[in-house]
Specification:
four-stranded antiparallel sheet; 10 helices; rod-shaped
């Protein structure tokens, strides 16, 4: 892990000239726009949201009747009953059926209505999830942006400290050549200057790593020139007097995570209503219209003599009464005539009454109640997390502002103390150890002031962000 970190620092140091001399200047708003348009996680979430919109459209379409057309054509072989003549056929018979049907649910315990409500709440919840993800990315980018500004200021402060130390090295060298300072003091102050150069290098590496973090968030090419704009950051106390309860009340009206949790309660309520609707009778109406054709269909068109006679009785004089035997003459019924003659229509009204279904409906109702209670608890957790975030941001802003005021005042005192120590060192009145202690106190106060400044700005902007004002520097 340590070796990997050293590798990152060295790599960042090699890329520092590229990052610091780039031509492309990015404002915070440009970073937001680029991330929201190109972030892969947001695109993935948007596709999930699109799917819920499709499900919502389908829930509306479930209210409409269905309509289907079916055509069947085939051959029957062997002894079979012709579906249109109701006679046995032993030869291969070609047949065709063509019909259309439609069905609509008239009543089903309001399940379709509750299904629409469920998918409407689901689509709204996913839309809020997308907004929540966008807000998280905005806050992450803003944090990385401020981190870069902080390290930029720290690089400048460290460079000023190095300049002061190099000036002191030059003065000490002159004094050593004049015999007023021992060579050991010169070596000691040169060692301190080398330490300041190392501090500057470390700060530059930290700055470069902060740049890399933001570049990765924006999914940019690290080899391309990139730098950010330095806005005018003012430290005011306007956010210190805001009541966190007032900020929370405003945030609850549009905070995406809370709104999404509220919509999931509605989803669970609709799911419970749908499960209860399964206990209700269902009424549906259907209609069909069709016709068909059979290759075995025939109709009689006349008779013909067989040339044979049969006795059917006798007269009073005992003479035989005979009748000529005939056989019917059939012709194949044409396809067009069969289609016309075989037309049939049907309508039906169906009543379905659930009586016992192995306790499946009861189980779904029980599970839906559990889902509803879970959604309510999730809402409370989300609301509590938002409350903690706002209260923590307010407390952090207040503490950071007070620390900024204190470190700013102490910074002036340490700066004057350092100037005095520098003069006394030149006069040989204090040792190098005392001089370094004064310098270290000044460095710590400057670092503390910068850290308090950026912590206050970030916490204050979070309070502004949760009131729907966006994140602006």
């Amino acid at each position: 892990m340590y070796t990997f970190r050293i590798f990152l620092i060295v790599a960042a140091g090699l890329m520092l000239p590229v990052l610091s001399t780039g031509q492309s200047v990015w404002t915070l708003e440009r970073c937001f726009d680029h991330a929201l348009s190109n972030n892969l996680h947001i695109k993935q979430q948007e596709f999930a949201e699109e799917r819920t919109r499709n499900d919502l459209r389908q829930s509306y379409a479930n209210l409409f009747p269905n309509l289907n057309a079916i055509s069947q054509q085939g051959y029957n072989y062997g002894r079979t009953i012709d579906p249109f003549t109701n006679e046995f056929a032993t030869e291969s018979v070609a047949f065709q059926r063509v019909y259309g049907s439609s069905n609509v649910t008239l009543f089903a315990g309001f399940q379709n209505i509750n299904n629409i409500r469920l998918h409407l709440a689901q689509n709204t919840a996913f839309r809020y999830d997308t907004e929540r993800m966008q807000n998280d990315i905005i806050l992450s980018i803003a944090s990385a942006y401020l981190q870069i500004l902080y390290f930029k200021d720290m690089v400048e402060v460290t460079r000023q400290q190095l300049d002061v130390m190099e000036q002191q090295v030059e003065r000490t060298r002159i004094m050593m050549q004049g015999g007023t300072v021992a060579r050991g003091a010169m070596l000691e102050i040169e060692a301190q200057a080398a330490q300041e150069r190392l501090n500057l290098l470390n700060m530059e590496n930290n700055l470069n790593l902060a740049y890399l973090e933001l570049i990765h968030m924006l999914d940019l090419d690290p080899g391309e020139p990139f730098t950010i704009e330095r806005p005018d950051l003012a430290v005011g106390e306007e956010y210190l007097f805001q009541d966190p309860a007032v900020v929370l009340e405003k945030a609850l009206g549009f905070e995406p995570s809370v709104m999404a949790a509220g919509q999931r309660i509605r989803m669970a309520e609709s799911g419970l209503a749908m499960a209860r609707g399964e206990q209700s009778p269902r009424i549906s109406f259907g209609a069909s219209y069709g016709t068909g054709y059979s290759g075995a269909a025939r109709r009689q068109i006349g008779q013909e003599s067989t040339g044979q006679f049969t006795e059917i009785g006798r007269t009073a004089s005992n003479e035989a009464v005979v009748r000529e035997l005939t056989m019917p003459i059939f012709e194949r019924i044409s396809y067009r005539d069969q289609i016309k003659e075989n037309m049939n229509q049907a309508i039906q009204l169906e009543l379905y009454i659930p009586i016992f279904n192995r306790l499946q409906v009861r189980r779904r109702i029980q599970n839906s109640r559990v889902d509803l209670e879970t959604a309510r608890i999730s809402y409370e957790i989300t609301r509590n997390n938002l409350t903690k975030t706002i209260e923590q941001a307010h407390a952090d802003a207040t503490a950071a502002y007070q620390r900024y005021l204190a470190t700013t005042k102490s910074q002036e005192a340490f700066r004057e103390s350092f100037k005095d120590s520098e003069q006394r060192l030149n006069l040989g009145m204090i040792s190098m150890v005392e001089y370094n202690e004064a310098k270290a106190r000044l460095a710590r106060s400057e670092a503390d002031a910068l850290q308090a400044k950026y912590e206050y700005i970030f916490s204050a902007r979070i309070l502004e962000f949760y009131q729907g004002r966006g994140f602006n520097l």
